[in-house]
Every structure is written in C-alpha cells, then in structure tokens.
Amino acid sequence: MQKAPSDEQRKILGAFLVDRRARLDPAAAGFAVGRRRTPGLRREEVAQLAGVSVSWYTWLEQGREIRASPETLDRVAEALRLDYTERVHLFALSERRPPEAPPDDSLSNGLLLLLRALDPVPAYIRNTRLDILAWNSAIADLFTDYGVLEPHERNTLRLLFLHPPYRRLIVDWEVVARGMLATFRAAQAQAADKTPFRTLADELIASSTEFRLWWPDHDVRHFDEGVKRIDHPVHGTVDLTYVSMVPESRHDLSLVTYIPRPSERAPP
C-alpha cells in the first residue's frame, strides 16, 4: 500500500508549489499579463495547464489530504516547468517513486575533467545500456582505441561478443561475457525506454551464437566492483580491479575505473 505524505510533507509541498508558481512568466505560458496582485501564474492557470480542477490544485497547495497519481504529478510538473531535480522533489514530497532521469548522453565539463585527471588510471564513462561515451588514453591503451570505432560500436556488450581483438584480450571470456549480459538484462528491465536495449539485443541475437544461446537466461547482476584479467599483447597478463561509480546527479551514467592489481609473489 502506498504510504501517505505526512502533514509536514504536505505543508512543504504546498509551499514548494506556491514558490515555483510565483517564478513563472504568464506571457511565456500563454496568458495575458494584465494587472496581477502577485507575481507568476494564478492557481487557475496552473490548473488549466495541468488539466486538473482549480479546487483540486488549490487543495494541493493548501496541504489537504489528497493523493496525486504519478501521471497527475507529471502534468503539474510540466505546468510549473520543473527541471528533473525539482520533479524528484515533487514526487518525494508526495511519497511517490521518483521519475526516471530522461536519457541524455551529454557529459558535463566536470566529468570530462575528472576522466582526464584520472589518467594514467584507465577509466571511461558509460550509460546504462553500456555505451561508452568518453574515455581516457590509459584505457584506450589497455583495451582498444575507441576513437577509431563508430559510435554504435563503442558498447561494452557489443565489443565482448562481436569485436574479436577485444574478445581475445579477456581471460575467462565466458564468465565476463555472461556477467556483462546479466548487467545489461537488469538495466533493460529498469529502463523507461527499452527500445535502444532491444535494438542492441536484436543485433547481437542475429550476429552472435553465444548471445543468442544465453539471452533467454534470467541471471541479473549489478556492475559495481570486481576483478578482471586480460592477456595484453604488449603488457602481458594484467590483473585488474574495476570500480564503478555513479555521479550523484546522473544516475544514468557510470564512471568505471580499472586499477592494476599488485602481483602476488610468494615470500622468499
């Protein structure tokens, strides 16, 4: 059963809605400006934009004990032109599951600077579909030169199953490939838009016997931390610890680092 917002949450929600309503420009929303006693939109204008009754929206701002569906909250968020962080706040105050972040492959300057600063630690940034969006020179030297690949080829799962040079690098390839497939399967189930996932899966089903055989399985996995061994043509056998970190404001992205493990030698 859905938990009801507390009296304090409803009070904060009402104040939040009033504040955001006051920030809007009536003309930009398509309303005549005229003489207004207070800045921003009127309650009836927000209600009109959101497709709800004026009395219902008034009660929402007043902190009355009413429940708003996720669909209705979405319309209120659109009417108030809330950004993603504000939408999450609106849903949290209403005791609703936060909306999923919209797909966005753009990267902030801060993330790109961090990626470059990590060099010589191998690292890349990828999304939940396992598309590699940015990388540093250390990881290109370790795995493959992503820059010479077409954008659609820069995908960890695709590289594992369809790129022979990448596949030859990985010791215990089947274990790694099955684990990455389990990660992809879990991410697809959680994605709001499953079309990009299905497109990639269809390509791999058509092109890879192993993927076609393993895709109907039900293993799921969260990719966060583990070990991997590669057989590098220049550096030889390299043992790595990988760590995946998710930016606080971009849960659709992961910064993945590969840290060489010290060799374990027997004491003299």
TrEMBL record:
GO molecular function ontology, one term from the record: DNA binding
Sequence ranges assigned to domain HTH cro/C1-type in this UniProt record: 16-87
Superkingdom in the source lineage: Bacteria
CDD domains, sorted: HTH_XRE
One Pfam family cited in the UniProt record for this chain: MLTR_LBD
Annotated SMART domains: HTH_XRE
InterPro entries in alphabetical order: Cro/C1-type_HTH, Lambda_DNA-bd_dom_sf, MLTR_LBD
Record-given protein name: Helix-turn-helix domain-containing protein
